[in-house]
Amino acid sequence: MAKVLVFIDNPGTSLKKSSLELLTLGRALGETAVALNGKLHDDVAAAFAEYGIGTVLLPSAEDLDDFLVAPKAAYLAAAAGQAGANIVLLDNSPEGKEIAARAGIRLNAGVITDVVAVDADGTAHKSVLAGSYNTACKAGTPVSVLTVKANNVVPVPAAAPAALETVTVDVPAVSAAARITAREQKVASGRPDLTDARIVVAGGRGLDGDFGPVEELADALGAAVGASRAATDAGWISHDAQVGQTGKTVSPQLYISAGISGAIQQKAGMQTAKVIVAVNKDAESPVFEIADFGIVGDLFDVLPQATAEIKKRKG
Ligand SMILES: Cc1cc2nc3c(=O)[nH]c(=O)nc-3n(C[C@H](O)[C@H](O)[C@H](O)COP(=O)(O)OP(=O)(O)OC[C@H]3O[C@@H](n4cnc5c(N)ncnc54)[C@H](O)[C@@H]3O)c2cc1C
């Protein structure tokens, strides 16, 4: 039976859905423990127990967040060694991937990123080349480190809650780690995080600078707002919202694309969405090749109608 370690970084007072997905996946693969960085809040401890986690490892040092990722990777590798883990799971964020890579070196482990599913024997499945192919790969090393894309596992609590114990892990000293000297709070949009969101409404050059219709539809659906590179490069919306090869990779249940042509670099970031709805005034636009539902029309007519209808139905 596999021994699985899930890395969770600074959850605050509640676990993100993507963390619950990792816990559910871990449990399906074997005996699962958590390596936590940050404070273990009571509500988070209760969620761990609910998801069948018996052991939470905590770092001996409290200053891991004062540095970039190197000390976190050192801690995770030490925690994996202490827990005897042969599968380490992390989220697929840029930071998760960097921690995975650094921990992988320390553990002499194979590292697989962009994973969408894992078989019982540790074989990882990936969606590659802009979602055109699915591949299966397995690390040939005793330990494998996998970063898993959000929204590919349905979070399910354990049949019976576990009794939780905490264990301290000595964090090895890391030299030359870049220290963080200042932090600036980002203004919260009140919308879900783009990479975690179940629904994404994304806009492109067709918006001609006005993201209003996209934002209104997103808010009616409780969705995150995404964008093509043309829209972010034009400065119409922050670069954080860019979806694609050089932006974020999203895998929501529903991706609504408005005024986006569907270039290969855009597809690379969203083609694994479960359902794709495209709104474009050009019936020949390549976006319709990957859309499950297509609407040929002016987004400034279509989106407000959809928003109004959704609001009406929600009462
Ligand atoms: C190395 C590299 C990396 C890249 N990385 C990314 C990336 O990460 N993400 C990304 O998105 N792109 C990326 N690109 C850019 C990519 O090639 C495209 O240029 C870009 O995606 C185009 O954005 P767009 O679809 O919004 O604009 P366009 O291709 O100009 O398409 C606009 C679309 O809007 C439609 N439209 C116009 N007006 C309306 C209207 N009123 N109603 C409905 N439809 C309308 C048009 O018919 C058209 O299909 C990258 C390119 C390179 C070379």
TrEMBL record:
<dbReference type="InterPro" id="IPR014730">
    <property type="entry name" value="ETF_a/b_N"/>
</dbReference>
<dbReference type="InterPro" id="IPR029035">
    <property type="entry name" value="DHS-like_NAD/FAD-binding_dom"/>
</dbReference>
<dbReference type="InterPro" id="IPR014731">
    <property type="entry name" value="ETF_asu_C"/>
</dbReference>
<comment type="function">
    <text>The electron transfer flavoprotein serves as a specific electron acceptor for other dehydrogenases. It transfers the electrons to the main respiratory chain via ETF-ubiquinone oxidoreductase (ETF dehydrogenase).</text>
</comment>
<dbReference type="Pfam" id="PF00766">
    <property type="entry name" value="ETF_alpha"/>
</dbReference>
<feature type="domain" description="Electron transfer flavoprotein alpha/beta-subunit N-terminal">
    <location>
        <begin position="4"/>
        <end position="184"/>
    </location>
</feature>
<dbReference type="InterPro" id="IPR001308">
    <property type="entry name" value="ETF_a/FixB"/>
</dbReference>
<comment type="subunit">
    <text>Heterodimer of an alpha and a beta subunit.</text>
</comment>
<dbReference type="Pfam" id="PF01012">
    <property type="entry name" value="ETF"/>
</dbReference>
<dbReference type="InterPro" id="IPR014729">
    <property type="entry name" value="Rossmann-like_a/b/a_fold"/>
</dbReference>
<comment type="similarity">
    <text>Belongs to the ETF alpha-subunit/FixB family.</text>
</comment>
<protein>
    <submittedName>
        <fullName>Electron transfer flavoprotein subunit alpha</fullName>
    </submittedName>
</protein>
